[in-house]
Model the fold of this input.
Amino acid sequence: MTVLDIHDDFATVVDGVEPITLKRRDSAATIAIAAAWRFASRTSEAEAGGGHVAQRDVVWQFAWDAANDLPRLGDTLLDATGGCFNILAVESLRAASRLRCTTRNLSLVVPWNDRVEVQQAIIEDTGGGPEITGWTTIRAALPARIQPHQLDVDNTTSPAAATATYRIVLGEQLDLAADTRFVDALGNVYQLIEYTQAERIDALPVATVVNLPDEASY
Done:
């Protein structure tokens, strides 16, 4: 009688397998996985706003060599087409000889010109104390999605004054400071007031900003 070895025979008993690569988080180390199966795949909106921020959730199954440390949360799986999937959950099947990994790919579905330049203030003491004397670009042409977030109305003034805030969904994680600003393709300038989701593996980072109609005011 032939006994099925799920580790050695996984590629022959499951249709539609493909090679992928496991990349360790914060490391250049990789592990080649010869045969992985996309058990389930679902694409949905990751950030409310017209479908411009998409998430693709894929559940993978594959045989695993017990000599290697198990995949960890935040590791990534890379497919043959360049897709990069953050590992959100790891489940051992059949005494860890086979794994099921729930993963997520995040992307911005935006036109080429929907990008921002990220700038950091140059602060110098010119004799009257520290002041902003210029700006330096820390990231040019960063894919981003700028969308309205909130409008605060002050009815104590006449006429009433309004302050609009926006959310900028960024295509990658950045280290930002309080004196960071963003400039869009039309030259509009946005001052950073909050930065969230910077280290999450299941969502893209978001900068909450206010538009500066008069650049000289900041």
Observations:
- The chain has two domains: 6-108, 115-217.
